[in-house]
Amino acid sequence: MNWIQIRFTADKASQPLLEEALWSAGAASLTYQDGADQPILEPGLHETPLWDALVVTALFEAGIVVDDVLQQLSQVLDGPLPPHRVELLEDKDWLREWMKDYQPMQFGERIWVCPSWLEAPDPGAINLMLDPGLAFGTGTHPTTAMCLTQLDALPLAGKTVIDYGCGSGILAIAALLLGADKVIATDIDPQALAASRDNAERNGVAAQLQLYLPQDMPQQPVDVVLANILAGPLVALADQLSGLLKPGGTLLLSGLLAEQQPAL
Prior knowledge:
Layout: E1 3-11, H1 15-24, E2 29-34, E3 53-61, H2 66-77, E4 84-89, H3 94-100, E5 105-107, E6 111-114, E7 126-129, H4 142-153, E8 160-164, H5 170-177, E9 182-186, H6 190-202, E10 209-212, E11 222-228, H7 231-236, H8 238-243, E12 245-254
Parallel strand pairs: 6-7, 8-9, 8-11, 9-10, 11-12
Antiparallel strand pairs: 1-3, 1-4, 2-3, 5-6
């Protein structure tokens, strides 16, 4: 079926009432986008921060009478509507549309990250099969890409690795496929641990991956410590991360902005 979408230009202060009005008018979904290129850095776990300037897109079934919906919205808002645009959204096979965005990606000389619905372009390479999911880490983010490239350049054969903040498990799995003997992975989000376990099983390395919440993780020093998180947590965890590393080991940190580097 086709859909009608109405895009509103709004701000953070007007968002709660606008959201209430759109749901009351029968919106099937709401999407929020940045309206002024304002970065939001380091939100807390389970927080849903909003930008000061917003583009709010409401999706309605195509059978609606647009003028009636706009009138209802105006009544709930008790005033003029924010600037808006009405568009017809033609129906598509949305699953296939979404899948088009993900293609195999190469990192370093040996690693390919491939979605499961595509064949690996180089069967002789190290192919990490990974589908986009709810946990962070598919290779599309620059910090993940940099970490994968660095891992490819490290001598990992026989090493023990810690992945602190494992997300999808992409770095932990890559380390194992590159020859690491064991990876200890931790994350504060149980959903990330479940995603890491599933992805490790898909790639045949689940037996070598140990998963823990941070408070349960063994405190044994290892050869390589990875932490692709954010600058604030990296600073807060500095003593712990350093304490987990053997003398002469490798500490690989990412997730910070260029301007945060001197302070870190």
